[in-house]
Design a protein that fits this description.
This protein is mainly alpha-helical. The protein has one domain. It is built from 15 helices and 2 strands. Helix 14 (328-337) packs antiparallel against helix 15 (340-367).
Length: 368
């Protein structure tokens, strides 16, 4: 594992730099932990457990959301439905996206005070991302600001991509929902595909150069006797600066992604899925599933509802394996943060794996 750390100014004594840096690291760590615990305990895991306990009674109220702040009816014009669906998506994701930006800014502030942790092997960096991503409990959209912060703070691109994949796909509560609602073979496919996708991360990322490392939260001009108060003020100022920068970089793209997702969802609603299975149909479902931005566990809910309505299993499996794994929003963030090649490669990998799952399901069913 290789590490690097920003060097103190030559005019700053080493004896005063280290204690101040330790103080700033402690404050930044406290901010990060407070934000994470508040989100996990007050919102995310209670909401996921509620969905898990609802079992086969789980319902969705919007084309892309569990909640519907504004009504959407067939009698409305297309543009009205798109506008209302866009608002409903943003309303459903308001808490997760707020957490993503707040926690991302906190992690950027914290990591800027620490040595850059990076393994020499791509596999090691990928495993590091998995370990950080699984407990996050945020969807593929809300994890995008966090991924951007990790990269800007010096994390390996492999770590960033692995965290963005594992957070929505390998969350333990979401997986419990999968095993509770679907037959065992389908559930095993849903588990296997994210693992295969994570194994492909070194190939997807390849030799993408890391972003320049910044160190906003290090101030070597603080005096020892007022170290805590001045360190607190400087760290809070750094956090607010990181928060503002992350908001400007991600929120406009969130609005764009919400509109594009609503456009596709209203022009091609799920009730247009054909009743007969074909390679073209599976590819279309995989493309739509990979593109559409949906909240956490929405993929499980909508795939289960479609299965109960008699939609062919091949399409259900394809949607289950693609809908929550990626979307147009993290693709936009990755494209601007890492590279468009990496973003496109990840989009294509999710789509192709979804097609493979759907085709494999169709072939097995035909053979049986």
């Amino acid at each position: 594992m290789s590490t690097s750390v920003a060097s103190p100014s030559i005019s700053s004594p080493i004896s005063t730099f280290r204690p101040r840096l330790w103080v700033q690291t402690s404050i930044a760590a406290f901010i990060s932990l407070t934000i994470a615990l508040y989100f996990w305990i007050d919102s995310r895991y209670p909401a996921l457990l509620k969905k898990l306990h609802s079992g086969k009674g789980i319902q969705t109220k919007g084309a892309l959301s569990f909640d519907a702040l504004m009504p959407v009816t067939p009698a409305m014009s297309l543009m009205t439905r798109i506008g209302h669906t866009t608002v409903n998506w943003m309303w459903t994701n308001r808490i997760g996206m707020t957490f993503g930006i707040c926690f991302g800014a906190a992690m950027l502030t914290l990591l800027s005070t620490l040595p850059r942790i990076r393994f020499k092997s791509a596999a090691g960096n990928t495993l590091l991302g998995i370990a950080g991503g699984v407990p996050l409990g945020v969807c593929a959209n809300c994890v995008a600001p966090i991924g951007r912060s990790l990269l800007v703070a010096g994390a390996s691109p492999n770590t960033v991509v692995a965290a963005m994949i594992s957070s929505p796909t390998l969350n333990v509560v979401v997986l419990a929902m999968v095993f509770a609602l679907f037959p065992l073979p389908i559930a095993l496919v849903r588990v296997a595909l994210p693992l295969l996708l994570l194994a492909l991360v070194p190939v997807i990322v390849r030799t993408t150069a890391p972003a320049p490392w910044i160190s906003h939260a290090v101030n070597t001009s603080l005096v020892d006797k007022n170290g805590w108060w001045q360190a607190l003020g400087f760290t809070l100022k750094s956090y607010l600066k990181n928060f503002a920068g992350l908001t400007v970089a991600t929120v406009p793209l969130m609005v764009v992604a919400a509109f594009l997702g609503a456009l596709i969802a209203e022009v091609l609603p799920v009730n247009h899925i054909p009743t007969t299975v074909s390679l073209v149909g599976i590819a279309a479902v995989a493309l739509a599933g990979t593109f559409l931005p949906v909240p956490m566990a929405f993929d499980v809910a909508i795939a289960f509802l479609l299965m109960t309505r008699g939609v062919p299993t091949a399409y259900v499996v394809t949607l289950l394996c693609t809908l929550g794994a990626f979307s147009i929003y993290p693709m936009l963030i990755l494209g601007r943060t890492i590279s468009w090649r990496t973003a496109t490669a990840l989009f294509g990998s999710v789509m192709l794996l979804g097609i493979a799952a759907g085709v494999g399901t169709a072939l097995i069913q035909h053979a049986l």
